[in-house]
Write a structure and sequence with these properties.
This protein is mainly α and 170 residues long. Helices cover 65% and strands 9% of the residues. The chain has a two-stranded antiparallel sheet. It is elongated, with a radius of gyration of 20 Å.
């Protein structure tokens, strides 16, 4: 998943952690049923980030084992800001956007608006088309089909309001 790097680096930025704690923090913060971070992805990513200078691991002795606590470096912070500011493609469940949005406080408003505006405009277009469909076909639709369409319209209204709020926030 493309957002794995953003999630891992962003979570280390927020809370320096060892691998197990990082995995637990990610699960708690991004409890999306479609996003499961396994050790075969986490630890190679941590090693790559450390090799690239984005994070620094410091071994800390504790009890019977020692743990490597990862901290973000200045180079890692710059990479994180770059990743957060990348445009987001619309996706079915909005998860990719949500991952970026979690870290929007780290980038300037102009960058945030640049990311959100195309998604906002896309939702506005979908909303307009859905209202036209309801107007044109609603009286002839089966009750459950109409209910599904109205549910979709309400979801679009919610998304549009959310995007608008994020673009207006300072």
């Amino acid at each position: 998943m493309a957002n794995t790097d953003l999630i891992i680096l962003g979570m280390i930025y927020l809370v320096p952690s060892h691998g197990y704690q990082l995995k637990k923090n990610i699960k708690e913060s991004f409890g999306n049923p479609y996003f499961k971070l396994n050790n075969n992805v986490l630890y190679p990513t941590l090693a790559r980030f450390e090799q690239e200078g984005f994070i620094e691991g410091k071994t800390v002795a504790g009890g019977s084992t020692s743990k490597k606590i990862y901290h973000i470096t200045e180079k890692g912070r710059e990479k994180l800001l770059e990743m957060v500011a990348e445009p987001v493609e619309p996706d079915i469940d909005g998860f990719d956007f949500s991952v970026h949005a979690v870290f929007f406080d780290l980038i300037p408003k102009e960058s945030r608006v640049k990311i959100i505006k195309p998604l906002y405009e896309s939702k506005l277009q979908m909303y307009k088309e859905s209202l036209e469909k309801k107007e044109k076909y609603g009286v002839n639709m089966l009750p459950i089909s109409l209910a599904v369409l109205e549910y979709g319209i309400k979801g679009l209204e919610r998304d549009i309001e959310f995007y608008k709020k994020l673009m207006e926030m300072e």
